[in-house]
Amino acid sequence: MSATAGSKADARPDADLVAAYRGGDERAAAELVKRHLAAVGRFLYSSGAGPTDVEDLVQETFFRAFRRIDGWRGEASFRSWLFTIAGNLHKDEYRRRRGRQVVSIEDRDLPDRADPDGDFAATEAEDRLRQGLAGLPRLQREVFLLRAQEGRSYQDIAVALGTTPGAARVHYHHAVKRLKELVR
Amino acid sequence: MNLCEQLSDRMPAIAAGEQWSATEAAHLAECAGCAAEWAVFTAARVLGADVAASLSAHHITERVLGRLRADRSAARARRRGLAIVGLAAAAAVALAVWTGSPPRPAGGITRGVAAADLSLVELDSLRAPELEALLHSMDPTDDTDPLHTVPSVLDDGDLDGVLDALEG
User: Fold this and answer.
1) What are the chain A neighbours of B48 within 8 Å (beta carbons)?
2) Chain B partners of A170 at a C-beta cutoff of 8 Å?
3) Which residues contact B120 (CB under 8 A, 6 or more apart)?
4) A107 or A2: which carries more pLDDT confidence?
5) Per the CB < 8 Å rule, is A3 touching B61?
6) What's the ipTM?
7) Which ranges in A14-77 belong to alpha helices (H)?
Protein backbone atom coordinates (compact mmCIF):
# COMPACT_ATOMS: atom_id res chain seq x y z
CA MET A 1 0.00 0.00 0.00
CA SER A 2 1.22 3.48 -0.80
CA ALA A 3 2.45 5.47 2.16
CA THR A 4 0.36 8.41 1.04
CA ALA A 5 -2.84 6.47 0.49
CA GLY A 6 -5.83 7.48 2.52
CA SER A 7 -6.71 10.98 3.68
CA LYS A 8 -7.85 10.28 7.22
CA ALA A 9 -6.06 12.66 9.58
CA ASP A 10 -3.69 11.06 12.05
CA ALA A 11 -4.16 12.64 15.47
CA ARG A 12 -0.90 11.36 16.91
CA PRO A 13 1.55 14.07 18.08
CA ASP A 14 4.66 14.72 16.01
CA ALA A 15 6.92 12.91 18.49
CA ASP A 16 4.87 9.70 18.11
CA LEU A 17 4.94 9.97 14.32
CA VAL A 18 8.70 10.49 14.35
CA ALA A 19 9.10 7.43 16.59
CA ALA A 20 6.90 5.41 14.24
CA TYR A 21 8.94 6.52 11.23
CA ARG A 22 12.15 5.56 13.03
CA GLY A 23 10.56 2.13 13.41
CA GLY A 24 10.04 1.92 9.64
CA ASP A 25 6.46 3.22 9.30
CA GLU A 26 6.39 5.28 6.08
CA ARG A 27 2.77 6.31 6.67
CA ALA A 28 4.01 8.28 9.67
CA ALA A 29 6.39 10.17 7.37
CA ALA A 30 3.54 10.86 4.95
CA GLU A 31 1.47 12.31 7.79
CA LEU A 32 4.36 14.53 8.90
CA VAL A 33 4.74 15.87 5.35
CA LYS A 34 1.01 16.53 5.10
CA ARG A 35 1.00 18.29 8.46
CA HIS A 36 3.94 20.63 7.91
CA LEU A 37 4.16 21.05 4.14
CA ALA A 38 2.28 24.34 3.86
CA ALA A 39 4.09 25.97 6.79
CA VAL A 40 7.51 25.02 5.38
CA GLY A 41 6.46 26.28 1.93
CA ARG A 42 5.28 29.62 3.32
CA PHE A 43 8.43 29.95 5.40
CA LEU A 44 10.65 29.39 2.35
CA TYR A 45 8.62 31.71 0.13
CA SER A 46 8.61 34.42 2.81
CA SER A 47 12.38 34.00 3.20
CA GLY A 48 12.82 34.91 -0.46
CA ALA A 49 12.73 31.60 -2.33
CA GLY A 50 11.21 31.92 -5.80
CA PRO A 51 7.74 30.39 -6.23
CA THR A 52 9.14 27.89 -8.72
CA ASP A 53 11.89 26.84 -6.29
CA VAL A 54 9.66 26.37 -3.27
CA GLU A 55 8.51 22.85 -4.16
CA ASP A 56 12.06 21.57 -4.70
CA LEU A 57 13.25 23.20 -1.49
CA VAL A 58 10.33 21.77 0.46
CA GLN A 59 11.08 18.32 -0.91
CA GLU A 60 14.75 18.66 -0.02
CA THR A 61 13.86 19.89 3.48
CA PHE A 62 11.78 16.79 4.20
CA PHE A 63 14.33 14.48 2.59
CA ARG A 64 17.13 15.84 4.79
CA ALA A 65 14.89 15.79 7.85
CA PHE A 66 13.94 12.12 7.45
CA ARG A 67 17.44 11.07 6.50
CA ARG A 68 18.76 12.59 9.72
CA ILE A 69 15.68 12.05 11.83
CA ASP A 70 17.81 11.19 14.87
CA GLY A 71 18.95 14.83 14.83
CA TRP A 72 15.54 15.85 16.19
CA ARG A 73 15.56 15.20 19.90
CA GLY A 74 12.36 17.03 20.75
CA GLU A 75 13.82 20.11 22.47
CA ALA A 76 12.15 22.38 19.92
CA SER A 77 8.97 21.55 18.04
CA PHE A 78 9.33 19.35 14.96
CA ARG A 79 8.12 22.22 12.78
CA SER A 80 10.71 24.63 14.20
CA TRP A 81 13.36 21.99 13.47
CA LEU A 82 12.10 21.73 9.89
CA PHE A 83 12.32 25.52 9.59
CA THR A 84 15.95 25.36 10.71
CA ILE A 85 16.71 22.82 7.98
CA ALA A 86 14.77 24.89 5.43
CA GLY A 87 16.64 28.02 6.50
CA ASN A 88 20.00 26.27 6.04
CA LEU A 89 18.92 25.01 2.64
CA HIS A 90 17.82 28.45 1.55
CA LYS A 91 21.11 29.91 2.73
CA ASP A 92 23.04 27.24 0.76
CA GLU A 93 20.92 27.98 -2.29
CA TYR A 94 21.61 31.70 -1.88
CA ARG A 95 25.36 31.02 -1.73
CA ARG A 96 25.21 28.66 -4.70
CA ARG A 97 23.40 31.20 -6.80
CA ARG A 98 25.32 34.26 -5.66
CA GLY A 99 26.05 36.34 -8.74
CA ARG A 100 22.84 35.27 -10.34
CA GLN A 101 19.29 36.25 -9.48
CA VAL A 102 18.46 34.85 -6.06
CA VAL A 103 15.17 36.31 -4.93
CA SER A 104 12.89 35.89 -7.90
CA ILE A 105 10.16 38.10 -6.53
CA GLU A 106 9.52 39.70 -9.93
CA ASP A 107 8.90 36.44 -11.79
CA ARG A 108 5.80 35.74 -9.75
CA ASP A 109 2.65 35.30 -11.86
CA LEU A 110 0.08 37.96 -11.08
CA PRO A 111 -3.24 36.42 -10.12
CA ASP A 112 -6.15 36.87 -12.50
CA ARG A 113 -8.76 38.45 -10.27
CA ALA A 114 -11.71 40.81 -10.56
CA ASP A 115 -9.99 43.90 -9.13
CA PRO A 116 -6.64 44.18 -10.92
CA ASP A 117 -5.77 47.59 -9.40
CA GLY A 118 -6.48 46.46 -5.86
CA ASP A 119 -4.72 43.15 -6.41
CA PHE A 120 -1.72 44.90 -7.90
CA ALA A 121 -1.45 47.12 -4.83
CA ALA A 122 -1.74 44.07 -2.58
CA THR A 123 0.87 42.23 -4.63
CA GLU A 124 3.16 45.24 -4.52
CA ALA A 125 2.88 45.42 -0.72
CA GLU A 126 3.48 41.69 -0.46
CA ASP A 127 6.53 41.95 -2.70
CA ARG A 128 7.92 44.81 -0.62
CA LEU A 129 7.42 42.72 2.49
CA ARG A 130 9.17 39.75 0.89
CA GLN A 131 12.04 41.92 -0.26
CA GLY A 132 12.26 43.38 3.22
CA LEU A 133 12.29 39.92 4.80
CA ALA A 134 14.87 38.65 2.31
CA GLY A 135 17.10 41.61 3.18
CA LEU A 136 17.03 40.97 6.93
CA PRO A 137 19.85 39.16 8.72
CA ARG A 138 18.96 35.49 8.89
CA LEU A 139 18.29 35.33 12.61
CA GLN A 140 16.04 38.40 12.54
CA ARG A 141 14.08 36.98 9.61
CA GLU A 142 13.64 33.54 11.15
CA VAL A 143 12.65 34.88 14.56
CA PHE A 144 10.11 37.19 12.95
CA LEU A 145 8.62 34.44 10.74
CA LEU A 146 8.44 31.90 13.57
CA ARG A 147 6.57 34.47 15.61
CA ALA A 148 4.31 35.94 12.90
CA GLN A 149 3.54 32.81 10.89
CA GLU A 150 3.71 30.18 13.61
CA GLY A 151 2.83 32.19 16.71
CA ARG A 152 5.78 30.67 18.56
CA SER A 153 6.83 31.90 21.96
CA TYR A 154 10.26 33.47 22.39
CA GLN A 155 11.20 30.45 24.50
CA ASP A 156 10.42 27.98 21.68
CA ILE A 157 12.10 30.22 19.11
CA ALA A 158 15.21 30.43 21.28
CA VAL A 159 15.45 26.63 21.53
CA ALA A 160 14.87 26.19 17.79
CA LEU A 161 17.44 28.75 16.73
CA GLY A 162 20.03 28.16 19.44
CA THR A 163 19.71 31.53 21.13
CA THR A 164 18.13 32.97 24.30
CA PRO A 165 14.53 34.18 24.70
CA GLY A 166 15.84 37.69 25.41
CA ALA A 167 17.96 37.72 22.28
CA ALA A 168 15.04 36.35 20.24
CA ARG A 169 12.89 39.24 21.48
CA VAL A 170 15.57 41.76 20.46
CA HIS A 171 15.88 40.16 16.99
CA TYR A 172 12.12 40.31 16.56
CA HIS A 173 11.98 44.02 17.41
CA HIS A 174 14.89 44.84 15.09
CA ALA A 175 13.10 42.96 12.29
CA VAL A 176 9.81 44.75 12.94
CA LYS A 177 11.51 48.13 12.98
CA ARG A 178 13.09 47.54 9.56
CA LEU A 179 9.97 46.03 8.03
CA LYS A 180 7.76 48.88 9.23
CA GLU A 181 9.99 51.34 7.39
CA LEU A 182 9.76 49.33 4.18
CA VAL A 183 6.04 48.68 4.18
CA ARG A 184 5.00 52.18 5.30
CA MET B 1 5.77 46.64 30.48
CA ASN B 2 4.21 49.52 28.55
CA LEU B 3 1.17 49.16 26.30
CA CYS B 4 3.25 48.98 23.08
CA GLU B 5 5.19 45.98 24.45
CA GLN B 6 2.00 44.40 25.74
CA LEU B 7 0.36 44.67 22.32
CA SER B 8 3.45 43.29 20.63
CA ASP B 9 3.46 40.27 22.94
CA ARG B 10 -0.24 39.67 22.38
CA MET B 11 -0.11 39.74 18.57
CA PRO B 12 0.35 35.97 18.01
CA ALA B 13 -2.63 35.21 20.27
CA ILE B 14 -4.81 37.86 18.59
CA ALA B 15 -3.81 36.55 15.15
CA ALA B 16 -4.84 33.08 16.33
CA GLY B 17 -8.34 34.28 17.21
CA GLU B 18 -8.31 36.08 20.55
CA GLN B 19 -9.75 39.62 20.83
CA TRP B 20 -8.00 42.83 21.83
CA SER B 21 -9.19 44.22 25.14
CA ALA B 22 -10.89 47.64 25.03
CA THR B 23 -7.69 49.32 26.30
CA GLU B 24 -5.55 47.50 23.76
CA ALA B 25 -7.94 48.34 20.91
CA ALA B 26 -7.95 52.01 21.89
CA HIS B 27 -4.15 52.08 22.02
CA LEU B 28 -3.88 50.35 18.63
CA ALA B 29 -6.17 53.00 17.12
CA GLU B 30 -4.02 55.89 18.31
CA CYS B 31 -0.45 54.46 18.22
CA ALA B 32 1.03 54.59 14.72
CA GLY B 33 3.96 52.33 15.70
CA CYS B 34 1.72 49.55 17.04
CA ALA B 35 -0.63 49.89 14.06
CA ALA B 36 2.32 49.54 11.67
CA GLU B 37 3.65 46.51 13.58
CA TRP B 38 0.22 44.90 13.50
CA ALA B 39 -0.04 45.55 9.73
CA VAL B 40 3.37 43.93 9.12
CA PHE B 41 2.56 41.05 11.44
CA THR B 42 -0.77 40.21 9.78
CA ALA B 43 0.68 40.61 6.27
CA ALA B 44 3.53 38.22 7.10
CA ARG B 45 1.09 35.76 8.61
CA VAL B 46 -0.64 35.15 5.26
CA LEU B 47 2.44 35.63 3.08
CA GLY B 48 2.91 32.74 0.66
CA ALA B 49 -0.43 31.13 1.44
CA ASP B 50 -1.24 30.77 -2.28
CA VAL B 51 2.18 29.24 -3.04
CA ALA B 52 1.80 26.81 -0.13
CA ALA B 53 -1.70 25.86 -1.27
CA SER B 54 -0.33 24.80 -4.66
CA LEU B 55 2.02 22.21 -3.10
CA SER B 56 0.87 18.61 -3.45
CA ALA B 57 1.43 16.60 -0.28
CA HIS B 58 0.98 13.32 -2.17
CA HIS B 59 3.48 14.22 -4.88
CA ILE B 60 6.11 15.52 -2.45
CA THR B 61 5.69 12.56 -0.10
CA GLU B 62 6.13 10.04 -2.92
CA ARG B 63 9.25 11.79 -4.15
CA VAL B 64 10.75 12.13 -0.66
CA LEU B 65 10.06 8.50 0.27
CA GLY B 66 11.36 7.32 -3.12
CA ARG B 67 14.61 9.21 -2.57
CA LEU B 68 14.92 7.84 0.97
CA ARG B 69 14.47 4.25 -0.30
CA ALA B 70 17.08 4.82 -3.01
CA ASP B 71 19.41 6.38 -0.43
CA ARG B 72 19.04 3.37 1.88
CA SER B 73 19.65 0.93 -1.00
CA ALA B 74 22.78 2.81 -2.03
CA ALA B 75 24.04 2.80 1.57
CA ARG B 76 23.43 -0.96 1.83
CA ALA B 77 25.25 -1.55 -1.48
CA ARG B 78 28.19 0.55 -0.28
CA ARG B 79 28.35 -1.43 2.99
CA ARG B 80 28.18 -4.74 1.07
CA GLY B 81 30.92 -3.57 -1.30
CA LEU B 82 33.14 -2.56 1.61
CA ALA B 83 32.52 -5.89 3.35
CA ILE B 84 33.43 -7.84 0.20
CA VAL B 85 36.61 -5.81 -0.32
CA GLY B 86 37.51 -6.31 3.35
CA LEU B 87 36.91 -10.05 3.19
CA ALA B 88 38.90 -10.36 -0.02
CA ALA B 89 41.81 -8.46 1.51
CA ALA B 90 41.70 -10.58 4.65
CA ALA B 91 41.57 -13.76 2.56
CA ALA B 92 44.54 -12.60 0.46
CA VAL B 93 46.58 -11.87 3.58
CA ALA B 94 45.64 -15.21 5.15
CA LEU B 95 46.55 -17.04 1.94
CA ALA B 96 49.89 -15.28 1.71
CA VAL B 97 50.72 -16.08 5.34
CA TRP B 98 49.62 -19.69 4.98
CA THR B 99 51.29 -20.58 1.67
CA GLY B 100 54.04 -18.11 1.08
CA SER B 101 57.49 -17.92 2.65
CA PRO B 102 58.44 -14.49 3.90
CA PRO B 103 61.21 -12.68 2.02
CA ARG B 104 64.59 -13.38 3.49
CA PRO B 105 66.44 -10.48 5.00
CA ALA B 106 69.47 -9.20 3.07
CA GLY B 107 71.94 -10.15 5.78
CA GLY B 108 71.12 -13.86 5.65
CA ILE B 109 69.32 -16.12 8.01
CA THR B 110 71.30 -15.27 11.14
CA ARG B 111 70.26 -11.62 10.89
CA GLY B 112 66.66 -12.74 10.47
CA VAL B 113 66.90 -14.88 13.56
CA ALA B 114 68.43 -12.00 15.49
CA ALA B 115 65.65 -9.71 14.34
CA ALA B 116 63.12 -12.24 15.64
CA ASP B 117 64.62 -12.26 19.09
CA LEU B 118 61.45 -12.71 21.07
CA SER B 119 61.42 -12.38 24.78
CA LEU B 120 59.06 -14.97 26.29
CA VAL B 121 59.72 -14.47 29.98
CA GLU B 122 56.69 -16.51 30.93
CA LEU B 123 58.52 -19.61 29.67
CA ASP B 124 61.51 -19.02 31.92
CA SER B 125 59.94 -20.72 34.88
CA LEU B 126 59.15 -23.91 32.96
CA ARG B 127 61.35 -26.98 33.35
CA ALA B 128 62.70 -28.92 30.37
CA PRO B 129 59.96 -31.64 30.30
CA GLU B 130 57.25 -28.95 30.49
CA LEU B 131 58.82 -27.03 27.64
CA GLU B 132 59.05 -30.27 25.66
CA ALA B 133 55.36 -30.96 26.24
CA LEU B 134 54.48 -27.43 25.23
CA LEU B 135 56.47 -27.73 22.03
CA HIS B 136 54.74 -30.97 21.13
CA SER B 137 51.33 -29.47 21.73
CA MET B 138 52.12 -26.44 19.51
CA ASP B 139 53.92 -28.10 16.64
CA PRO B 140 51.81 -30.71 14.87
CA THR B 141 54.22 -31.13 11.97
CA ASP B 142 54.11 -33.70 9.23
CA ASP B 143 56.87 -36.16 10.12
CA THR B 144 57.18 -37.31 6.53
CA ASP B 145 58.21 -33.80 5.40
CA PRO B 146 62.03 -33.65 5.64
CA LEU B 147 61.89 -29.90 6.11
CA HIS B 148 59.90 -30.34 9.29
CA THR B 149 61.80 -33.28 10.68
CA VAL B 150 63.99 -31.71 13.28
CA PRO B 151 66.18 -33.89 15.47
CA SER B 152 65.72 -33.43 19.18
CA VAL B 153 69.38 -32.59 19.69
CA LEU B 154 71.14 -30.63 16.97
CA ASP B 155 74.88 -30.36 16.51
CA ASP B 156 76.58 -28.08 13.97
CA GLY B 157 76.34 -30.67 11.23
CA ASP B 158 72.63 -31.16 11.83
CA LEU B 159 72.03 -27.41 11.73
CA ASP B 160 73.93 -27.10 8.44
CA GLY B 161 71.76 -29.87 7.06
CA VAL B 162 68.55 -28.12 8.11
CA LEU B 163 69.75 -24.81 6.68
CA ASP B 164 70.74 -26.47 3.40
CA ALA B 165 67.31 -28.04 3.17
CA LEU B 166 65.56 -24.73 3.87
CA GLU B 167 67.68 -22.76 1.40
CA GLY B 168 67.51 -25.40 -1.32
Assistant:
1) 41-46, 54
2) none
3) none
4) A2
5) yes
6) 0.77
7) 14-22, 26-46, 51-67
